[in-house]
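Our preliminary data section would be incomplete without showing what the modeling component actually yields. Below, a chain of 438 amino acids is followed by its predicted structure, encoded as tokens that our downstream tools consume directly.
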Amino acid sequence: MKRKILIVEDNVGLSQMQKDWFAQVGYEAVTAMNEPIARSLIRKTQFDLILSDVRLPEGDGISLLEWLRKEKKDIPFIITTEYVSVPDVVRTIKLGAIDYLPKPVRKEHLLELAEDVFRPMVIVRKQEKKLFHRTSPKILQVEKYARLVAPSEMSVMILGANGTGKESVAQSIHQGSGRWNMPFVAVNCGTLPRELAASLFFGHEKGAFTGADTAKTGYFDMAKGGTLFLDEIGTMSYETQSMLLRVLQENTYTPIGSGKERIADVRIIAATNEDLQQAIKDGRFREDLYHRLCEFEIHQPSLAECAEDIIPLAEFFRERYSKELKRETYGFTDDAKRRMLAYPWPGNVRELQNKIKRSVLVSESPVLEIEGLNIEIHQHDNEPISITAIRPLKDESQEKIYIINALKACNGHREQAAAMLKINPATLYRKMKKYGLN
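Predicted structure:
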């Protein structure tokens, strides 16, 4: 069943564009121009997410959120506005909004946030998930570190942007460890309610608190003997961090309502896209917990840094979704391949996966074309702009990758590649010589 999203926005062009974005990745979106219409729709339909502007012709996003809480409708709520007001932001977060997005809202940011909302809070994997073997140098370095640390009991911190495949790295560490035949439990800390954290992690006995009609197993028990993967650890509340630290220090925990201690027999792997050093300086993350979680650190590179993996990954996803969706496909056109190599993939592997799935579904030809991939960038005034092969050369640490991508996208034509890079051909030739790309 498709996830249902309500967009409350009086700008018809913007709400339609956001509706199209959601539709492209398989969500069903409905729009409302004001608060009364939104309330009417919410009474009739079970929505999985609400995206609302603060300022509306009738009512506003904050009063809509207040009404939801009074009605005891626990629907994830994201607030958007052009006019940043710190008191409004604080108020919406206190009311339970999961995030605040300033306008213009970026497509990749919005879809990434929706995917995080819809990800299950916890997934238990008892069998090995099929992992695609990547061959780019930076990924091979990550795999090398994962193999080295896997047999130990060291806690591992995996750093990297959303959608890069941090959970896949965690799974490979689990599979290479002595715990490989025990559960791998992945917890999405971004959706972890602070007030329920203790019960969710440690479980509770029947009657331990109001509403505890039955005993419940916690994540530490689910992962007993195996690996507990804490994804998006940077979003965990300070109180929950303190609770987790105590367990890691003492290696024991007690389910709520029970007087009996249990041994915490799990290996901890954590992941985040946040700068934890900055979070520590800002007082948002405990330094002592960071050192407990980060006995060994692995950096997962972005897809843009691993251009060699783009086409093989695309083929892997094409074959998977051709089977799942029962669509016969054979590959990609040369133009589609060039465009995939040219695109910066801000949503990383997850974005590539979603776009290939869409292309398999909508393509009228067994050879997938660029149109089905829907690779384009939107400006905030709703005007689409065509993609350049890569970003202009500004960051020296990335420019070799960008040059390779541009040359691939232009079939080796240096003048075209220079134009895409927004540099002159002589500069491109000099940089190619510098990196041994002649």
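The radius of gyration is 24 Å. The chain is about 45% helix and 15% strand. Preliminary results of this kind motivate Aim 1 of the renewal.
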